[in-house]
Amino acid sequence: MKSIAAWICAAVAAVAVNCSVSADTYPSRATRMIVPYAAGGPTDLAARKLADLLGPRLGQPVVVENRGGGGGIPGTEAVAAAAPDGYTLLVGATGPLVVSPSVRTLRYDVNKDLQPIAEIWRSSQLLAAHPKVGVKTFAEFVDHARKNPGKLTIGTAGIGTLPHLLLELVNMEAGVKLVHVPYRGTAAVLPNALGGQIDAIIGDVAVIAPNVRSGALVPIAVTAPERSTLLPDVPTVAESRYPKLVAESWYGLMAPAGVPQDVMKKLVPAVQAALADPSFLEALKSQGATVVANSPEKFGAHIRSETEKWGPVARAAGLK
Fold first, then answer.
1. pLDDT surpasses 50 at 12
2. What does the pLDDT average to over 174-179?
3. pTM across the whole model
4. Distances in Å between the alpha carbon of 237 and those of 222, 245, 290?
């Protein structure tokens, strides 16, 4: 019995030593940064820039892995189910972290299975119309929609996306009935928006701005608290007396819940340093985005606040 007890004690001690060494030497290999969207979009490009800056600060490579499809849910599921060792990170977004959990049962619980590290950036959405609609301001757009209920068609990046929820919120707040036309991404909306097959588009300002500058689309309003640096002459929805329509798409870095504090003490400062890098700030500015770089606690609070705001809108819209 004594020999068995001694063996157990030795095994426990070995595990403790290994855990301590693991924490002390983190990171000792490459880290995966999962982007739950297709390669090539604004989210992917920003994530790759962050990975390039984070790697040298951790002393190990950070490799971006795209797991697109399913509204970002499969990629988010993969991170929630991964080992909580700091080697798997998620670029989380509104859809899989706020909208989908509000309307359906998922294989992960955002509050229990994922751990916030830092919010990365926020970007404005832009409402733009085809010239044939004949409106130039948000007030004119609302008035036109009221006079033509159920006739104005608005394209978005898809069902359950922030642009879709914004459309539904416009319906509620302005007392109109816009027709939602979902696509697979903002870029996919543009051909029909430019061709006049649909009346207007709501999407990332960085994607739509070039078509506004060319005169192909008429900018109506941006949804951020302040005007976009990409289109400084376009007013905000708040300026049009609709403050409840203020909304920004946002992205943040998360990890599986349970990452040891010793690992977090190395990971969080490295992420904050990467986000503060002038080249990252400039890269995001060129996309009309604002770097946030807040603490894990503040990012967690922001997710809860967004859930309180958009959950009721998603359910009222009957999203499934």
1. no
2. 95
3. 0.83
4. 6, 6, 18
